[in-house]
Amino acid sequence: MTYQFDFGWLIDSLPVLLKGIRITVQLILIGAVFGVALGIACAWVRALGPKWLKPVVATYVELIRNTPFLIQLFFIFFGLPSLGIRMSELSAANLAMIVNLGAYSCEIIRAGIQATPRGQFEAGASLAMTPFQTFWHVVLVPALQRIWPALSSQIVIVMLGSAVVSQIAAEDLTFAANFIQSRNFRAFETYIVSTLIYLALAILLRQMLAGLGWMLFLRKASR
Amino acid sequence: MSLIAITEVKKRFGDNEVLKGISVDIAPGEVVAIIGKSGSGKSTLLRCINGLETIDEGSIVVAGAQFLPDEVHLKALRLKVGMIFQQFNLFPHLTAGGNVMLSQMVVKKTPKKDAEAVARKMLDRVGLAHKFDALPDELSGGQQQRVAIARALAMQPIALLCDEITSALDPELVAEVLAVVKELAAEGMTLVMVTHEMRFARDVCSRVVFMHQGRVHEIGAPEDVFANPRTPELRQFLGVQ
Ligand SMILES: Nc1ncnc2c1ncn2[C@@H]1O[C@H](COP(=O)(O)OP(=O)(O)O)[C@@H](O)[C@H]1O
Ligand SMILES: [Mg+2]
Questions:
Q1: Which SUPFAM superfamilies does this one have (chain B) (predicted)?
Q2: Does domain A11-222 have CATH number 3.30.450.40?
Q3: Nearest CA to ligand 1 atom 24
Q4: pLDDT digits 0-9 by tens, A109-131
Q5: What is the ipTM of this complex?
Q6: Phi and psi at residue B36, in whole multiples of 5°?
Q7: CA distance B129 to chain A (A)
Q8: B235 by DSSP, 3-state: which?
Q9: Which among B50, B93, B152 has the least Cβ separation from residue A217?
Q10: Disulfide check for B98: which of A58, A68, B94, B105 has CB 3.0–4.6 Å away?
């Protein structure tokens, strides 16, 4: 092989790369927290909520799950301004990820809720808890525990999918990699480095989610 | 004055009329056993008293308060009447203590410290003070059922409904749960229990209700009902000629 590897550019490009990493991490943290929160709310509606809200949520979920993430992103960033809703690249990227994860996690969490034994709802009711109190204090945690591996995988998928936000010039890790290789013409090395960073981030994220699951579900809680 | 007044209660599931006009009055401190074949409507009756099912006709009055199926009345009713289930239905993610504390804090807004004190007292009452920090799956069936009793007692109900609370237990664990119930009875708690423990019904209960096909087929003191069953259905159920 005659190709000469060159990683000398790394030093100069480090600030750009670090900023990209920071944005990607920020996107995934915000996306995961608010996306899962939205997913829980939607799952509650679909499994136990008021009848009139169900079709609204069902439409949202099916719309998101049957269209490409890139198109959702473009719609938010390029489409919504026509309605007078304008936002920065980063806000659009955040919103797209929240909306996307919200729909997928809704279906995952709903499966966890629906696997709840009927006796749990009845025990809650017989202790004078309202249906929502029973959902919140009794049903939710075991439901999340049931589907935690699937939910964790979905969060990682969304994290990796976040690469496409570079398409609206949100300055994430992929944007940084594209920018760097357009300067150094070292596509191979640049994308090797960014691939390894994504890999490390994904592994780290999985570990964090596993740790969080352990804290939430296996810790002995008396409350 | 009766504590629980059940008058001409009818309950249908679709075309299937499960309760066909039930009337029973239960006085404070009474211990009533409900016996009868599977499918005779025993569970449905208890569930109606607790508001887990709505009734189609008739009325259920608990401590002078009419049962109406809206959230305010349901809450008031369920604060008065606790229920224990065959399958325990403990909350699996909470410790024994957490199970007993939860509804106090959520429903009655009891401060955590006070709820914990009540929980320790109630667990002590069922002989499980030392299991405060145990998770349900670390407990035997009998212990889980006793936690469920403590959990219901923590809401300070004036009556407890027990639906075959020993039926899911291994035989050697039945006695410890019945002992707790017996003690509650001795302390004057009003109890309505669906049970297959005929010996227990005879020894502890003040009245026995025999249900058959959605009706109260016989009712009376245990010595009468068990010693002199008047109907062939009850005789057959009890296995006497
Ligand atoms: N939620 C329900 N929907 C339809 N039918 C029911 C429901 N609950 C109970 N039933 C029916 O009501 C009848 C009485 O049931 P149940 O009260 O559980 O009897 P028991 O406790 O005496 O065995 C049975 O025929 C049962 O199939
Ligand atoms: Mg039954």
A1: P-loop containing nucleoside triphosphate hydrolases (SSF52540)
A2: no
A3: B39
A4: 999 999 999 999 999 999 999 99
A5: 0.93
A6: 150, 165
A7: 14
A8: helix
A9: B93
A10: B94
